[in-house]
Amino acid sequence: MWIKSVFLSLFLLSICIASTALNVTYDSTSLLFDGQRKLVISGAIHYPRSTPEMWPGLIQRAKYGGLDTIETYIFWNHHEPQYRQYDFSGNLNFIKFLKTVRDNGLNAILRIGPYVCAEWTYGGFPVWLHHIPGIEFRTYNQPFMNEMKTFTTLIVDMVKKEKLFASQGGPIILAQIENEYGDVMGSFGDGGLKYLEWCAQFAVSLDIGIPWMMCQQNNPVAPPPMLVACNGPYCDSFTPNNSYSPKMWTENWVGWFENWGQSVHHRPAEDVAFSVARFFQLNGSVMNYYMYHGGTNFGRSAGGPLITTSYHYDAPLDEYGGLNQPKWGHLKDLHLLLKSLEKIMLYGTATTKTFDENNLESSTIFELNGTKACFLGNSHEDKDISIELLGKNFTIPPWSVTILKDCKTETYNTAKVRAQTSVKVRVPSRTNLQWASRKENPIHYKDPIIDRPSLIENKIFISSEAPDQKISNDTSDYLWYMTEFTVHDPKMGEEILLHANVSGPIIHVFLDGKHIDRWSGSYSQSGFIYEQLLNVERGKTYRLSILTVNVGYANYHAHYDRYVNGISGTVKLISQNSMHSLALTKWELRSGLSGILRNMPLGRGRWNPDVLSDRPFVWFKTTFDSPMGTDPVVVDLIGMGKGLAWVNGFNIGRFWPSAFANNQGCDSCDYRGDYGNSRENKCRSECGTSTQRWYHIPRSVLKDNGNTLVLFDEFGGDPSNVSIQTVPTGEVCANAPEDTTLVLSCEDKMLQNVPPGFYAAAATGKIFTEVSFASFGNANGTCGTVPQPYQKGTCDSPNTLAAIKKACLGKELCVIDVSEKTFGTSNCKSDVAKKLTVSLRC
Question: 785: Cβ–Cβ under 8 A, 6 or more apart, which residues?
Answer without folding.
Answer: none
